[in-house]
Amino acid sequence: MGDTSWRKPEVNEALVALYLRLNGYFTTGLVVHAPEWGQNRTEIDCLAVRHPNHMEPERGVGPSPFLVLRDGRVDLLICEVKSDPTEVAFNERLWTEPGVLEGVLQWAGVFGTQEVPRVANQLRPILKEGLDATRAQDGIVTNDVRARGLLCCPPATEAELPRGWCLRGSEILRYASECFNPPERRDTCSTRYNFHLWGSWLAPLVEYFKGLQPGAKPSLDKLYDYLGAA
């Protein structure tokens, strides 16, 4: 494709958004505003919400076990996307500066006003610990709403991040390929249509996956090359 406007960190963020959308999440970025002119308090690479009644049976692919979903709960994910495995950690302001995490939770709107401070206080130490698998996956649950932090690093290998809960490229590519390239045609879900319907940000990634030859496995490096990402 060769669109030189892409950079690898942008591709990585787009991959995370695509993965979560395929798993039934609404996704967006978020800027937490600051009173100082020209400043912001923090930026959330991807804020994702999945509702408990989400269904897409016609696709024939269930949600990924990696996400450890719980039936009957709203799931809120605060995602930090890194391109360097040595830098995998949440933005420090989320767990050190009063009011920052509260602002994120208030914007998401899944907790009542009175619940936000308590959820933030319980979630801060989990975000500080970062990759601790059990605590990160469990998150904080209040009134059937679960808030979690998810660290993401598409270029990381298993050897670089052998422990902990981190969304790596191997899981994203595996699941996207399963969704987009079934071994046989689906009776209830066409896999060929106008791929631009995915929007200008995700359509190039979808085109890459859909353009793979039967049996071919996706590669992060080949995706970078396809997009002309520097």
Detailed description of the structure:
This protein has 230 residues and is an alpha/beta fold. The chain has helices spanning 8-22, 93-96, 100-108, 116-129, 133-138, 169-180, 199-210, 220-227; strands at residues 26-33, 40-50, 74-81, 140-142, 145-153, 166-168. The chain is built from 8 helices and 6 strands. Strands 1, 2, 3, 4, 5 and 6 form a 6-stranded mixed beta sheet that branches. Helix 1 packs across helix 6 and helix 3 crosses helix 4 (116-129). The mean pLDDT is 90.
List the SSEs and their pairings.
Layout: H1 8-22, E1 26-33, E2 40-50, E3 74-81, H2 93-96, H3 100-108, H4 116-129, H5 133-138, E4 140-142, E5 145-153, E6 166-168, H6 169-180, H7 199-210, H8 220-227
Parallel strand pairs: 3-5, 5-6
Antiparallel strand pairs: 1-2, 2-3, 4-5
Q: What integer value in Å does the Rg equal?
A: 18 Å
Q: Would you tell me the overall average pLDDT?
A: 90
Helix content: 25-40%
Characterize the biggest β-sheet. 6 strands, mixed
User: How many β-strand stretches?
Assistant: 6
Overall, the morphology is: globular
Strand content: 15-25%
Structural class: alpha/beta
Question: Count of helical segments?
Answer: 8
SSE order in H/E notation?
HEEEHHHHEEEHHH
Q: How far apart are the termini?
A: 13 Å
* Low-pLDDT residue intervals, each spanning 5 or more residues: none
Q: What's the assembly state of these chains?
A: single chain
